Amino acid sequence: MSGRERVLGRVRRALADVPREEVPYEQAVPRGYLREHGGRSVAETVELLAENLADYRALVHRCTDTGLPSLIAGLLRRHGSASVVVPPGLDPGWLAETEVTRVADTADGTPRALDGVDSVVTGCAVAVAETGTIVLDGSPDQGRRRITLVPDHHICVVRVPGQVVASVPQALGRLDPARPLTWISGPSATSDIELDRVEGVHGPRTLEVVLVTVR
């Protein structure tokens, strides 16, 4: 029996005597909190996202969908990348103008192999303006969670305005809680007791977010 099966078994036993007519948990607690702070326009929400991403030390870029391939090629070139991890569902046109070596996101890939790859390019599930957070959910254009944690350089493409929401409650309404969700607010960083900041400890040292206006 796996650890997962043991935990689920304990949950089932704990809930065995709960009456069927009892109010479900998600309905038992009133949640009257604001779903958004302020009445921003779509353009203002996107601007807030860009500001908060930059505040978390992410590098923010903007372009239209037609300019995306050349922008990604330029970012990989400036980073000195010779290889890039490619999720299985990534639009091939995004990398049409770069000659770097593509590394497929496969089930048998190892952390050691990923550590030798320079960059990763992904899409996202949703981006939260108020917190400057990008959420990945393992969709085909994002790949397995590990490909965005091991390589040192992550380029994440956010479609504007369709993938941008104002708040966390709005983001949760779009996400499937059964999927492997990764919430990213800036590049990976930590601080020691003297508050010396170190980046790249448990994720990419450099996060570049491309806000793509889809026309």
Automatic annotation (TrEMBL):
SUPFAM superfamilies: NagB/RpiA/CoA transferase-like (SSF100950). Residues 108-212 form the LUD domain. Pfam families: LUD_dom. Transmembrane segments: none annotated. PANTHER family: LACTATE UTILIZATION PROTEIN C. This is LUD domain-containing protein. It comes from Streptomyces fumanus.
